Task: structure prediction
Amino acid sequence: LLTGLAQRRPDGATVLQAAFATYTMLYHDPEPRIRRNAVLAVASLQPHVPPGLLPGLVELVDDVELGQPAMYGLARSADDSVLARTALQHLLSEESDATRVRALQAIGQAGTAPADLIETIRKLLPKSNRTIVLTSIKTLGQLRRAADGARDDLQILAEKGDSEMANAAKDALAKIIPQQ
Result:
């Protein structure tokens, strides 16, 4: 019920402020579903995740169960929070492809990212393995107009990449530059 309120009420962060301590306590509940729902509720607070709850999300990014919703909350907050932006930058520079893919997916799911984070994603395009490149392309497409700075890189991939990469880049470009 509280997760639904957090996600749907435009003032959920204000209305549910009294429950914040309970949410963070539930991050450690023995029941996995309750832990995940608590993190997802915090990550989905509207209009944004309160700054005081971001350190708790940063602590959870490496957790197998809770890392993805925690990264989503950080991605939703990256426009306004240096802490969230720095944490995502760190995740995108990890050696682990799985960690980078999860971070990219969270950023795409959030649908927003500041320019410096988009620049980091753009730099992954020519220097990464196929999985990272394809996930980066998809993420840039999900960011739509915000990813306009990556248009030239995507255009090169659309023209010179193999068929799968070229098609993914074309799809992303179509979302970044909608047809009139």
